[in-house]
Design brief:
This protein is of the alpha+beta class and 340 residues long. The protein has eleven helices and nine strands. 40% of the residues lie in helices and 19% in strands. Keywords: Aminoacyl-tRNA synthetase, ATP-binding, Cytoplasm, Ligase, Magnesium, Metal-binding, Nucleotide-binding, Protein biosynthesis.
Amino acid sequence: MREEIKKIKEESLTLIQSGLTRDELQELKVKVMGKKGSLTALLKQLGSLSSEERPLVGQIINEVRASLEQAWDEKMKELEEQALLKRLEEEFLDITLPGIMMPRGHQHPLTKVIEEIEDIFIGMGFQIAEGPEIETDYYNFEALNLPKDHPARDMQDTFFITEEILLRTQTSPVQIRTMEKLCPGLPVKIIAPGKVFRNDDDATHSPMFHQVEGLLVDRGVRMSDLKGILLTFSRQMFGEDRQIRLRPSFFPFTEPSAEVDVSCMLCGGKGCKLCKGTGWIEILGAGMVHPKVLEAGGYDSVQVTGFAFGMGVERIAMLKYGIEDMRLLFDNDLRFLAQF
């Protein structure tokens, strides 16, 4: 048996050093030291030896196993290092070669305009408020002085989900939710940017577009405060030489109400194609918050007053960048977007 052990050891060591691959080394280990390996088979035969010879032969087998495992581990490590070096040589990268220039991404023009509007109003002390895009009829209409039979509802072409659940047609519901949350605290001074939805789709309308609503509620708020805020906004957005004018209008949630125009940024008010010869361009709607809307938010309309305004971000972007078709803002045409 000792001769067999010696033979297995010598043959195995010779094979280990003979240039076998890693897979072949693994097969050799199983063949010699596995459950059915030649060395393991000799261990099973120890029972047939005398009691004096058995421990000596067992010790020899264990020593041979240990030496073979050490030789096998060293060879496997050597082969792995060789494989790594070969892979590194094959995957060599010449860092002196010129790189491939990747086009840089940038903000969408609507995102730029929204952030610019936010920065302007934050600079005037307003805070940003948000609300759900799927709204209830109460917050989208009734709390804003638009009862179910009000004819002004027909102007908004609403996407109804159920009779009481809808896609919001304006960000004005955020005003009611914010007043409810802050009441009776004063002042309430917020802007509410976000997506709104109406059943429109042409060169100047989209079924999904963006609005920014503004609200200021406090004691002694006047129409002149509203005009001052909007004049500051218009000059920071369109240029310091801009002027604004307020024309009487009607909105159910404000009284009095006004359409706000800005002097044409192309002709300076002289009259051109952009302003259709009038010298003025409509940019938003505004007015003093209706007493019923203040009361819906939890405030006493005798003690406090407020103003509100709302603008379409797409319209501001179209005027700011001279875009004639709103659909360009949503077509994802990189030739168009790269201009910004």
